[in-house]
Structures are given as structure tokens and as C-alpha cells.
Amino acid sequence: xxxxxxxEIQRAPGSxxxxxxxxxxxxxxxxxxxxxxxxxxxxxxxxxxxxxxxAGDLHRPDQSKVDAVDNDWDQFASFKAYxxxxxxxxxxxxxxxxxxxxxxxIGSYHNIYRVGAILQDLNFWILNDIVWRKTxxxxxxxxxxxxxxxxxxxxxxxxQKAKGYTFNxxxxxxxxxDVQMRSDWLFxxxxxxERLKGEDGKKAHPTxxxxxxxxxxxxxxxKPGDVVLDPFFGSxxxxxxxxxxxRHYVGIEREQAYIDAAEARIADIKxxxxxxLTVMTGKKAEPRVAFNVLIDSGLLKPGxxxxxxxxxxxxxxxxxxxxxxGEESGxxxxxxxxxxxxxxxxGWTFWHFEDAGELKPIDALRRIVRDEMARSGA
Amino acid sequence: xxxxxxxEIQRAPGSxxxxxxxxxxxxxxxxxxxxxxxxxxxxxxxxxxxxxxxAGDLHRPDQSKVDAVDNDWDQFASFKAYxxxxxxxxxxxxxxxxxxxxxxxIGSYHNIYRVGAILQDLNFWILNDIVWRKTxxxxxxxxxxxxxxxxxxxxxxxxQKAKGYTFNxxxxxxxxxDVQMRSDWLFxxxxxxERLKGEDGKKAHPTxxxxxxxxxxxxxxxKPGDVVLDPFFGSxxxxxxxxxxxRHYVGIEREQAYIDAAEARIADIKxxxxxxLTVMTGKKAEPRVAFNVLIDSGLLKPGxxxxxxxxxxxxxxxxxxxxxxGEESGxxxxxxxxxxxxxxxxGWTFWHFEDAGELKPIDALRRIVRDEMARSGA
DNA sequence: TGCCTTGATGAATCAGTTC
DNA sequence: CGAACTGATTCATCAAGGC
Lengths: 378, 378
Description:
The structure is a homodimer.
Chain A: E1 2-5, H1 6-11, E2 23-26, H2 29-35, E3 41-46, H3 79-96, E4 97-107, H4 112-121, E5 125-134, E6 150-157, H5 169-175, E7 184-187, H6 211-221, E8 227-230, H7 237-244, E9 248-253, H8 256-267, H9 274-277, H10 291-296, E10 305-307, E11 314-317, E12 323-325, E13 328-330, H11 332-340, H12 347-350, E14 352-355, E15 358-361, H13 363-376
Parallel strand pairs in A: 1-2, 2-9, 3-4, 3-8, 5-7, 8-9
Antiparallel strand pairs in A: 4-6, 5-6, 10-11, 11-12, 12-13, 14-15
Chain B binds a DNA duplex through loops.
């Protein structure tokens, strides 16, 4: 890991072509982003200032003072100023993101509506908004509102037409008891030993995010080896989790104290082994098998009779890898769709063959071919 | 109840001074709002078009077509057009809201960021954003995103300096395990017998909201006798719940078919008695319970009669999750203690309901809810 | 009547590759 | 770049029908 000044980034030889990875760049967020090469990062996680607009001190019922976020970097004169700032750094993010990259932004009701609207105005395409439900949120001390028990994250691609973004659907599903991962996530806030403390024993950063949250974000929307950028690096949670999960990181941070804390923290992290990092994939990633391979390999013979699960439709296998049924013919998919009067049909699961008096989908034959391919290293 | 045309509202003698209550106004939302007297309603619930921007058809894995929202009223040419529409109706809402009134707006990621930003631009002051977590959301069929399992509501007052808005903190707390009500709420989507059907058996309105959701909104932020306005009345859930809870309603709706459905629906609603509607304002109760979930989930209905194991004491369930018995009222624990002259009482084991001629502790219902919550990952 | 199976459906910004 | 082709993909709940 290294820490580079903005000037160093700008004169780094590779700065126009390749990304500067596993590095914290010291400097202003927008200027630093503009110094990075375009289309060089796979994903961005951004935890911008929340624009909290606290009017005065807040006291608990026992009269102790709440240690609120009142740092310089969270002071904006107006929504207009906050919007201009937001637009500037989001635009700079667009430039450094690869075409199939995605961005995550976290916020609360104070700022997330401005962020979301500006994302849309800048032609980002929202894929999901995700709710982080806190198991242990701060209470509402005055009893004048509901307890503010969540924060919101927006996940977006570069546009409606942007294709090919990473979403590890099967991994998320497997991790969630084999049902789809929902848009509401439950995690504790960052506390205890995970919370970075300064030498004075006080928290090193006021809004340190839990590693579990970043883990799910990175596991869901990046691949091992990807570059994850965090333009508001703070205590370096993004870098720490990225390193552990075998991704590269680039952090941008203005304040030296935060950089020092993040650097020490990340140095202690060990990257997990390859076996632990392999991304669970579904059928999607499996090699493509054309239907006629089943015929070529002798698993199905020309003239064989196929039918749907209920026996309502049937067809004959032709030597060229198409099916025919009465007047109609076509690929396994086309013919299945035609016979059902549908636009589309997955022929692999629709068509069945008879084996020992039992109907089995031809997908079972494809399975055999794939197993054989895997075994022979094809 | 009555249905008035816009012209009738405009020539109604009292239209400049008092509100036109328990009425559906037929007409365009903004024009109708402008015809209502200023500062005449205590709360607004708005469920505006979401601006879904659907590109093409979506099919389930079984090739059936998803019946998406493709109504005229959800079509906007651009974000700019949607923003102008949003600004117009929100501005019109400002005028009719009493100084201490509050507004709720529900939306999804398609529109809620625009709504939130415009609310702030118009000087509304966000009090909370609330997440409606759906127990049974529609799946993501293509496996390219997280399952979109929530919608977002913004609750706002007329400005940072606006004082005196209604928030029934103690009632919310007593109903929620005697801990503060959080900003994430769990409810099923509206389905089954609650869902209004047309004569053809198809849903009367594509986006009917569940009554439990409106119940919590109205119980938390209005008082009995208040006027609740809904500028996008649709199937009339706001009116139905308002009437049941002893609040007045004003609905605005453009389409006659929706008005007809709402009118018939509301006519069937009975207002709960005074005892059930009294808002809990008492002091904290000591033990922890989660009683109103039984009401939200339909296991217990407001007005239901509970008694102790020996039948010596009995009480009536109120809509806000408290019990009343003669002069006395309170959470299930406080009331049980009071009636027995004790300091404390476990209401869960003390109170019983009748099931098939047998007395069973309400703890049995809590068990059902807990099993369900565990199953749904709540 | 009751249990089980089958089918329907809900605010949805829901594909990637080759020709 | 557009059209054509291939083929991957669902959870909870309720209603209806079979047995």
C-alpha cells in the first residue's frame, strides 16, 4: 500500500493508462478524481458528507451531550451548495468508472434525496435502493419522531443501456438461505473492537461504516481482482474489506489523521485465499452446449421422440439438431414457444425424453455433457 | 359521504372557510387542491404516480406475463415533466395544510428521490423517512438485481420552525414492545379479501395500499376528529382507514371507476368506538411487549374482548395497541397490573382470548407472530 | 369437511451474444 | 448498430379444484 499526494498521482507515469491501485490519494475529492485515468475502476462506494444541518447541541435524557457529527466537512451553506458539490463529485466519478461499472452511495434522509435526484439527472440508472436496517440505532431522545433506524444506499449503473454490470446473483442467493437477497439488509452499527480509536481512546472517525456492510456490497457487485474506488475514504473500511476479499482499492481522503488511521488498519488485513474467494455462479457461467452435441455424442438419436412434462406436446429429433412436430419445426426453444403460443421457451427444461418409463428433461443430458467437458478439461 | 365535482366544490358556500369533509372530489389533483380552503387539513397522505418508465414486457420463468403498471396516469415524458408535476401538487398541498400539519408521501426508487428533493426545495422539513418492508414482495425474475422488497415514505412538516405537529409517541411506543417505534415497518402487501376486485374479478386498482400501513400512519400522526387529505385517492384506503379510526377524510380522484370502488368500500366501514380510539398518552410501561403486531397482522381486531384466566377482569382492544376497561386503560401489562392492584403484570400470560369456546393466553398469538417473523427474516 | 395440489399474481425502471 | 438468436429466471400468499 502507498499514500500518494495529488501531485504525485499527476506525475505518475502510468496515470493516463492504468489505475493507481491499493493506494490512498491525499487531496480534494474532485481534484483527485480528475487526476485518475478515465474508465479505470470497476466499482465505487461513496459515503459523502450527510449535510446534517444540526441547529444546536443535543442532550440525552440524563443531560449528557450527544457527540454528533459537526465536522467542518459536513457544513454546507444551503441545499444549492450541497447540490453543486454532489454534482461535481458524481460527475467526476462517472469519468473514472468503466462502462460496465456501478456506483454505491450511502446517505440518510438529510442528503439521500438530493443525491438520488442528481444521480438520475446525470443519467445514472438506479438498479436498486438498499436499506441498511440498524440492529442498534441511536434512540430518538426527544420523543418527537420515529427512531431513525436505517440508512439508504443507492446502487446505480452508468445508464439504462449500460449492460454487463456485475451482480453475483447466485452467491447472494446462496448466502441468503437459497432465496433471493432482498433490498433490506440488517447489520449492527460499527462499534466495539471493530471501531477505530485514537490514542485518546475516542473514535477515530465519526461515521465509520461496518465491515459487514461493505462485504456484502463488494461481494454482490464486484469480482476478485476488481478495483473499488472510495472517494470519501475516511477510516478506510472500503479498503480494508476490498483487500480482505481480494479486490484492489483506491481511496481519496483529505485529512491526514484519517489517512494515518486507515493505512495502519489496512496493513493489518490479510487477503483471503483463492478457495474462499471463488464466486459462486449459477448455470449462467457454465459452458454453452448446443443441442446437436447431444446427437453428435449419441445421447439422443435422430428420430427420438420428445414430449413436454405433461405429454401435451411432442416432437421428433432431426439429424440437424432441430425438432419437428406436425407442420411445425425449429430449434428446441423456438418450437417449444410456438407450440405453447408463447414468445419464448427454455427448450432444455421444456422437452423431456423417456428413460426407464420416466420422463426426464433433456437438460439432464446437457448435464452429462458438461460433466464430461469439465472432467476432460475441455 | 358524498362525491362532489370540482365545480360544486368551488361554489360550495363554506369553501373559503371550512373543509369539505368525508368527501371524494372528482377532478385533477392540482385544480381540486386549489379549490379547497387554505389551512384546512391536519394531515396529507399522498401516493402519487411512481413514473415507472418500463421498457418492455417482463415474463416470469413460466413464461406468463407480469401484469405491470402501464396506466396513462403513470406516463411522463421526462424527469423534467415529472418534477414539474410533483412541484405543482406539493405546492398546492402546502396551501391547504394547517400550520402544524404534516404530509406523508410514498414512493419507490423510481420517484422518491425526486419527491424528497422537491419537498426540501419547497421548504418542507423532513421529520423521518420510513421504510415499508414487504413480507411478500414480487421476486426479481431475471436475477439481475436484488429483490425490490420495500417502498419508502417521507414524513414532513411545513418547515424547520413549524411547531406543534402531532406525533403520538407514547401510543407508538406502547404498541411496539414498549420501545420506540422504528423507521422500518413490516407489512404484507395488499392481497386476498382486502384487495378490491372489479366485476371481472381483476384488481380494481393496480396499487392499492394495505390498510395496516395507513393505520399506523394515521394513528401516529393525527388525532381523532382530524381531517386527512389524500390527493391521489385511488381505491380509497386512506378514506376507509380514516373513517374506521374516527378521522375525517377528503379524497381527490380523477377516474370515475376508482371513485365508485372507493365510495362503496368506505360505505361499508364502521367507525370504532370512543374507547378503542382514545390515544394513549400515559407514562412508560415497564415490561417489554409487542402487542400491536397482533393487530397489524389481523390476529386480533380492534374491539376484541380479552379477559383474565378466571374471567374476573376483561378489557377491549383499541386500535392503537392499548387496552381499555371501564375508566382504566394502558398497555396490556399496565392495565393487567392496575386491575389486580399489583405493581406489575405480564400481560401476555394474564390476558386471554376465546378460541373455539376455550380461553387461550394472547401469548399464543405472539408465538404465531414470532414464528412468522423468524420465517420471513424479520 | 379437510387436506393436498395446482395455478395465479403482486408499483418491475429485470439479457447477453452473434450475425 | 440493429436484428436475430439463444436461453436464464421466482417468493409468498391466496384461491380453486381434486380427492
